[in-house]
């Protein structure tokens, strides 16, 4: 009798635990090394952008607002299918705080309308199943994908690598820290301010065509 009771309790506990796993454990958190996509609502401080300048480039296909201290370069043609714009923040208040940041906007042809995982694999030789990323939409209804980790490499909290697909074009927005050509300390007021400006800058981006 006692043995039957113990067996019954064990079976009941196993069924209960199995139900818990199915019901409450997120399906994307598997032991396999698969891509993880999370929908996220980005924070946007519109007050910080009220005195920003407007950049509009019809041929590049983008418009956005940016801080007055930023210096935007010309459009450079990398090859027949890609172009790039370099932005230097120049956001330094003194020698100690002079952790400037460079932003690159790359425009790549996507004439075959590949998805982001397909682009990463076919054009940039990155294995999609090992990528972790967050998707979000800005107030201009542009959908972005922010990469969190590549195979064997987590992206630092002080880095940004964000993708957007539009029609037959892929846009890549990348930050690169620099201080006299050498990154010494990301965790400075100047660099953190630049990151905050970059996050707000992403929220102002819209496509022209």
Explain this structure to me?
- This protein is an alpha+beta fold and 209 residues long.
- The chain is 22% helix and 34% strand.
- The protein has helices at residues 2-24, 116-122, 189-204, and strands spanning 36-39, 53-57, 62-66, 71-79, 82-88, 101-109, 132-137, 143-150, 153-154, 161-166, 169-177, 206-207.
- Strands 1, 4, 5, 6, 7, 8, 9, 10 and 11 form a 9-stranded mixed beta sheet that branches. A 3-stranded antiparallel beta sheet has the order 2-3-12.
- The radius of gyration is 23 Å and the shape is globular.
| Number of E strands | 12
Distance between the termini: 77 Å
Give the count of helical stretches.
Answer: 3
Q: Give Rg in angstroms.
A: 23 Å
Q: What percent of residues are in strands?
A: 25-35%
In helices, the fraction of residues equals 10-25%
Provide mean pLDDT, rounded.
Answer: 75
Instruction: Report the uncertain regions.
Output: 9-42, 179-183
Largest sheet: 9 strands, mixed
- Describe the global form: globular
Structural class: alpha+beta
**N-to-C SSE series?**
HEEEEEEHEEEEEHE
Layout of helices and strands:
Blueprint: H1 2-24, E1 36-39, E2 53-57, E3 62-66, E4 71-79, E5 82-88, E6 101-109, H2 116-122, E7 132-137, E8 143-150, E9 153-154, E10 161-166, E11 169-177, H3 189-204, E12 206-207
Parallel strand pairs: 1-7
Antiparallel strand pairs: 2-3, 3-12, 4-5, 5-6, 6-11, 7-8, 8-9, 8-10, 10-11
Short description:
The chain is an alpha+beta fold and 209 residues long.
């Amino acid at each position: 009798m006692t043995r039957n009771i113990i067996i019954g309790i064990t079976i009941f506990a196993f069924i209960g635990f199995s139900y818990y796993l199915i019901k409450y454990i997120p399906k994307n958190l598997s032991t396999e090394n698969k891509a993880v996509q999370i929908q996220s609502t980005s924070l946007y401080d519109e007050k910080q952008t009220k005195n920003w300048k407007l950049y509009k480039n019809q041929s590049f296909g983008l418009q956005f607002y940016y801080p007055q201290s930023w210096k935007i370069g010309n459009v450079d043609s990398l090859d027949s299918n890609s172009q790039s714009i370099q932005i230097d923040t120049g956001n330094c208040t003194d020698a100690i705080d002079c952790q400037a940041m460079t932003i690159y906007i790359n425009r790549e042809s996507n004439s075959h309308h590949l998805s982001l995982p397909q682009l990463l694999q076919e054009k940039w030789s990155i294995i999609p199943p090992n990528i972790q990323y967050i998707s979000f939409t800005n107030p201009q209804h542009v959908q972005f994908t922010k990469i969190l980790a590549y195979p064997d490499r987590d992206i630092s909290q002080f880095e940004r690598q964000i993708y957007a697909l539009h029609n037959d074009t892929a846009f890549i927005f990348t930050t690169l820290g620099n201080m006299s050509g050498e990154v010494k300390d990301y965790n400075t007021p100047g660099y953190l301010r630049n990151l905050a400006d970059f996050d707000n800058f992403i929220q102002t981006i819209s496509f022209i065509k």
